[in-house]
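Hey, resending since the last one bounced:
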Amino acid sequence: MHIWVDADACPAVIKEILFRAAQRTQINTTLVANKLLRVPPSAFIRAVQVPAGFDVADNHIVQQIQAGDLVITADIPLAAQVIECAAHALNPRGEFYTADNISQRLTMRNFMEELRGSGVDISGPASFSQRDQKAFAAQLDRFLAKRR
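The structure tokens again:
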């Protein structure tokens, strides 16, 4: 198993949780972004910088993942592709995307995009909270414990 992180928009506190988990479990973890990322020196953690462009990081992750890998992302279309590859997708708020909920999420995302595109003022997601951080850490720990 490998952990892949869609790192461009991943909160720093989530990256720190992932760094500690990678060290503790000795699971290879790769952060993918279109900007240079700093990661702690570790045999289990690395960063990959991809060229700037629409979905370049997402495409890199999809090309690299294998069945059973874990991808950390808030990007719903990427999560859908991950699920199609028989891998797992967890968002930074601690919620797994699954085959049962991904189509509903895609539909809602597309609907909200249409509303924004037509000029309707829609607020974005709530700000990232301590509760979200704890939910993520708990889900990650449960997932990794099952995989050991």
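Helices lie at 12-25, 56-64, 76-84, 102-117, 130-147.

Sorry for the duplicate.
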